[in-house]
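Quick note —
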Amino acid sequence: MSESSAILVLHQSLRKCFQAIQQQQEAWQTALTDCKPLLSSLSNLAEQMQACQKVTFAHTPLRGFPDLEEQLKYKQRCAAETLLEELGGKVADLQKVRDVVSGYVGAVFQLYEQHADVLGFEASVQRTALIPSVADMLEWLHDIERYYQHVYLESKLLLLQIRYENLPDMQTLPQSWERILEHKSRNMVQDTLLKVSFLETL
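Predicted structure written out below.
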C-alpha cells in the first residue's frame, strides 16, 4: 500500500470514529443533564431526612400517631432508593458512551499501527492550514477517550459514596456534581469535532 492510500484509509477510519463520537456526545450530554435534577432532589430529600431525625415526635402534637415517624422514614428511604436507581441508570448511560467511544478509538489506533511503517514519521505529522496531521487527530482521540473515562469514573465514585448515615454529605451532592462538570476538558469534545469537520469533505 502506498503512503497516500494509507492516509486515505486512516482518514476514512478517523471520519467514522469522529462521527460516532458526535452521536455519542449527544447521549453523553443528555445523561449529564438528566443527573442534575435527580441529585438536587436527593439533596432536598437528605435535608428533609435530617430535619426528621431532629424532631422528637413524642414531644409534639403528633405523638398520638405512634407509627408516623417510622412511616415517614420509610417513605423517605423509598424515595431516595428510587432516585438512586435513576441515577444509576444515568451513570450506566455514561459508561455505554465511554465503552462505545473506546471501541472506535481502539480500532483507529490499531489501523494506524498496521500502516505505521508505510506512513512513516513525516506523513504522520504533516499538516496544512485546513487539515490537521494524523498525529494531531490521534492525540485528540486519546484526549477525548481520557475525558469520558475520567468523568464516568468520577460520577460512579460519587454515586458509590452516597450514604444514608451521612446526610450532610448527601445535601452537598449538587455542588459535588458541578465540580465534576467543571473538568478542564468539558468543551474539548465539541471543539475537536469542529476541528475535524474537514473529514466530511474527503
